[in-house]
Design goal:
The protein is mainly alpha-helical. The chain has 14 helices and 2 strands. The protein has 2 domains: 105 residues, no CATH class; 152 residues, no CATH class. It has a two-stranded antiparallel ribbon. It starts with a helix and ends in a 12-residue tail after the last helix.
Length: 325
């Protein structure tokens, strides 16, 4: 009951970190809370359905506990909230929230729930016991561990921190070696990443491969060419970079390995990604200076930057890019 309660109340706080267009207009009072939050802050269809289900669960639970009136008052308040700078202003409903919490026997709300940090007394101690259950609960097991892809937050982000050590510990070590090498040997017109942080975050979603690989779409292959670039950067840097340069992966193969993991809302299937990628003009070699232009290179650049700034750069990746024109 409590997890549903706080998820429903604070779920909208997570929308701004998700994919989807961000509306900047004031929301209409006639819409539901989830519609308001989604329109204002952006969300996927899955997130919208989740918010709706959680709020319906909260409504039923409140009714069962004799708190239906408090819920209606709180819900009515939420449905009058307005969008301010791409953030739904919920502050005017704090007193209704507290009244509903008290009625349902729940602790006061935690404004920072769902941020990945436990804020109850055993954590940062900035929220009451029981008010931050999502962050303070033991993480669920990672169902995709030991598959060669880091799924913790620094990788695909589909698993909790510390639950995919089999992939992330090895991968981060390999990525550190690779990114140190490519950032040292591929510079200027041969640069492949905007900075080391972008390299590390992109590397985390590339298959690790086998030590000694000189071909195939893998970190190992790219690491080999990043090292070889110390003596011949013009030949090896393109192969060491995220596109693979046709040696460490076909450009579209590399693109469609990276993008679905860093920007999961763009393509529904790998086939869709490969089809669209095949239509990108690819008449210039990729490097990290390709920030504009209707090219594969521009879209690959923004795909790598999306590894650290997804909200800004994921919209620049697909065919109808507002930047890669």
């Amino acid at each position: 009951m409590k997890p549903h309660f706080f998820l429903a109340v604070t779920f909208g706080m997570t929308f701004a970190a998700c994919g989807g267009d961000v509306a900047t207009t004031t929301s209409e009072p006639s819409k539901t809370y989830c519609e308001l939050a989604c329109d204002c802050e952006g969300c996927s269809a899955v997130e919208f359905d989740y918010c709706t289900d959680e709020f319906e669960d909260l409504s039923r639970t409140a009714a069962q506990m004799g708190c239906e009136a408090s819920f209606r008052t709180y819900n009515a308040c939420l449905e009058t909230r307005t969008c301010e700078l791409a953030s739904l202003d919920r502050s005017g409903c704090d007193d209704k929230f507290d009244a509903l919490s008290i009625c349902m026997g729940s602790p006061p709300g935690c404004p920072t729930t769902g941020n990945g940090v436990c804020d109850e007394p055993e954590g940062s101690n900035t929220c009451a016991e029981g008010s931050d259950p999502d962050d303070c609960a033991a993480p669920a097991p990672c169902m995709s561990t030991n598959n060669g892809v880091c799924d913790e937050p620094e990788g695909t982000g589909t698993c909790a921190e510390g639950t995919d050590q089999a992939d992330c510990n090895i991968m981060l070590s390999d990525c550190e070696v690779y990114c140190t090498s490519i950032q040292s040997n591929c510079i200027g017109k041969n640069a492949q990443y905007a900075d080391k942080a972008t390299c590390l975050a992109t590397c985390a979603v590339i298959p690790p491969g086998m030590p000694g690989d000189t071909m195939f779409n893998s970190t190992a292959c790219r690491s080999y060419h990043a090292s070889a670039a110390s003596t011949d950067p013009s030949s090896h840097c393109i192969h060491a970079g995220p596109s693979g340069g046709g040696i460490c992966g076909d450009p579209c193969e590399s693109f469609c390995t990276i993008v679905p993991k860093l920007c999961p809302d763009i393509y529904l299937t790998a086939k869709e990604c490969m089809f669209e990628c095949s239509n990108f003009p690819n008449d210039e070699p990729y490097d990290a200076s390709d920030t504009t232009g209707d090219t594969f290179a521009c879209r690959m650049y923004h795909a790598t930057i999306a590894s650290t700034q997804p909200q800004t750069h994921c919209p620049h990746v697909p065919e109808m890019s507002p930047v890669c024109l």
